[in-house]
Amino acid sequence: MITVQRNDYNSSTVKSSSYNYKQLTLTVHFSHATYVYSGVTEKDYINFSTAESQGKALNSFIKDKYDFEKLHETKKTVNI
Fold first, then answer.
1. Considering only CA atoms, which of 12, 13, 14, 24 is closest in space to residue 66?
2. Beta strand pairing status for 4-8 and 68-73?
3. DSSP letters of 7-52?
4. Residue 5: which of 38, 24, 55 has the closest Cα?
5. pTM
6. Assign residue 3 a region: left if phi > 0, alpha if psi is -120 to 50, beta otherwise?
7. 39: which residues sit within 8 A by CB, 6+ positions away?
8. What's the rounded Cα separation, in Å, for the pair 16 and 54?
9. How many CB atoms lie within 10 A of CB 35?
10. 55 SS3 class
């Protein structure tokens, strides 16, 4: 039985994700931050992970539907 699934994407916004089937948590890694969405249904996870565009799918199936926690953010620095 699979309990956690991890995916890497060829996306300009979403770098990778992992889904915990027992805890119903979706962790999404961007180049600038990591978010954990709680209570994500398996159906919404599958719709997100198999979409042609994870950025669009995140907006359609995950954002504004599930509570989230921002784990960390990488600050961009500018050299002058």
1. 24
2. unpaired
3. EE---SSEEEEEEETTTTEEEEEESSEEEEEES--HHHHHHHHTSS
4. 24
5. 0.87
6. alpha
7. 24, 66, 67
8. 9
9. 20
10. helix
Query: Tokens standing for 9?
Result: 């994407």
The backbone torsions φ and ψ at residue 6, rounded to the nearest 5 degrees and listed phi first, read -120, 140
Residue 22: both structure tokens together: 């027992």
Q: What is the residue whose two structure tokens read 């979706």? A: 26
Residues 5, 21 contacting (CB under 8 angstroms): yes
DSSP at 63: T
Quote the tokens at residue 26. Answer: 């979706």
Stated as kind and residue range, the H or E segment containing 71 is strand 68-73
- Rounded to the nearest angstrom, the gap between the alpha carbon of residue 62 and the centroid of all alpha carbons in its chain is 8
Residue with the two structure tokens 């956690």: 4
pLDDT per residue as tens digits for the range 23-47: 999 999 998 899 999 999 999 999 9
Range 8-30 average pLDDT: 95
